[in-house]
């Protein structure tokens, strides 16, 4: 009987101890979870080895994990300082991962609870890396340009540096337009360049944008801006390039982006250029056998540059 009472007492004391200890541990765990984050993955190079060749799949998994953590930290109003760790891991697995370069500024400078100037500079570094990894992707250049020109100034303290960043952003925007991005972006970029005293650069950028856009309303707006800048000759040069390129696009390159004509044409007829079916001709003797735009455009068109 004594053993039974002793056993029951021991069980009750143990149960009470577990109950009160667990409550204290739960409070401590919740407090720790609110103040600190543990990055659960190894170093990027080790992570690549552990992927066993499934780098892209693991990169997608990390990106999904990052988005979930980003949302949870906002909902719980907690700092989220491990974002660069996720970025570095993803880029080690897949260096050209486009989502990182598209959202790097949002995740870093608008992170829970607020980004700092250090985060703003780090965001620029990631976006510039995007233009190196994806040099012909207009979205990479447009993301960098929009961030530098419009968003970053909120986090910088030096007006001189803000002006430099805005000018860099305008040039990045123009590069994105040249690669096939929205041509209307060129107008806002040009406004930044002209305010910074870079009128010649603005005119050259508008000239290139006019030559490669197929949007009639955008063309009219760009032409009007060139007129405002007193660049009548430059506008006429670009118009001549358009008159040369557009017929090719409409007749021989249907279904392709307008800018693709600049890469794929001129496309001489090999039979004609070899003299089959007609008199012998050489690229120097005929426009039909031109191998480049230089042979079709006057040398002074577009200030000596290709459209």
Please tell me about this protein's structure:
The longest helix is centred in the N-terminal third of the chain and has 34 residues. The protein has a domain of 141 residues: Serine Threonine Protein Phosphatase 5, Tetratricopeptide repeat, CATH 1.25.40. α2 crosses α4, α8 packs parallel to α10 and α10 packs parallel to α12. The protein is built from 14 helices and no strands. With 307 residues, it is an all-alpha fold. The termini are far apart.
Helix share bin: 55-70%
Count of helix runs: 14
**What's the gyration radius in Å?**
30 Å
Question: Which second-level CATH architecture of the domain at 41-181 applies?
Answer: Alpha Horseshoe
Specify the overall morphology.
elongated
Strand share of the residues?
under 5%
- CATH fold assignment of the domain at 41-181: Serine Threonine Protein Phosphatase 5, Tetratricopeptide repeat
Q: Work out the number of β strands.
A: 0
Counting helices, strands and paired strands, the structural category is mainly alpha
Q: From N to C, what is the helix and strand string? A: HHHHHHHHHHHHHH
User: Biggest sheet: strands, sense, closure?
Assistant: none
Q: So what's the CATH class of the domain at 41-181? A: Mainly Alpha
Could you name the ranges where pLDDT drops below 50 across 5 or more consecutive residues? 299-307
Output mean pLDDT. 78
The first-to-last residue Cα distance is 102 Å
Offer a few descriptive terms.
mainly alpha; 14 helices; 307 residues; elongated; Serine Threonine Protein Phosphatase 5, Tetratricopeptide repeat
């Amino acid at each position: 009987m004594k053993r039974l009472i002793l056993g029951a007492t021991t069980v009750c004391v143990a149960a009470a101890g577990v109950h009160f200890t667990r409550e204290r541990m739960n409070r401590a765990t919740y407090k720790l979870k609110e103040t600190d984050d543990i990055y659960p993955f190894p170093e990027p190079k080790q992570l690549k080895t552990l992927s066993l060749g499934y780098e892209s799949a693991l990169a997608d998994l990390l990106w999904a994990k990052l988005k979930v953590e980003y949302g949870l930290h906002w909902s719980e109003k907690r700092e989220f300082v491990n974002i660069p760790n996720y970025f570095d891991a993803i880029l080690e697995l897949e260096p050209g991962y486009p989502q990182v370069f598209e959202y790097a500024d949002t995740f870093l400078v608008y992170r829970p609870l607020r980004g700092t100037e250090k985060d703003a500079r780090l965001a620029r570094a990631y976006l510039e890396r995007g233009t190196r990894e994806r040099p012909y992707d207009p979205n990479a250049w447009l993301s960098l340009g929009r961030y530098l020109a419009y968003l970053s100034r909120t986090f910088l303290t030096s007006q001189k540096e803000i002006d430099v960043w805005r000018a860099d952003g305008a040039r990045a925007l123009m590069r994105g337009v040249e690669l096939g991005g929205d041509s209307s972006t060129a107008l806002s970029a040009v406004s930044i360049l002209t305010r910074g005293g870079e009128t010649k650069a603005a005119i050259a950028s508008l000239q290139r944008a006019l030559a490669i856009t197929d949007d009639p309303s955008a063309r009219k707006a760009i032409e009007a801006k060139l007129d405002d800048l007193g660049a009548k000759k430059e506008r006429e040069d670009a118009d001549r390039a358009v008159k040369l390129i557009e017929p090719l696009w409409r007749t021989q390159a249907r279904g392709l982006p307008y800018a693709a004509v600049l890469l794929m044409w001129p496309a001489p007829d090999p039979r004609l250029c070899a003299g089959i079916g007609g008199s012998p001709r050489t690229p120097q003797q005929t426009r039909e056998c031109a191998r480049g735009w230089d042979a079709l455009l006057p040398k002074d068109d577009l200030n000596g540059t290709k459209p």
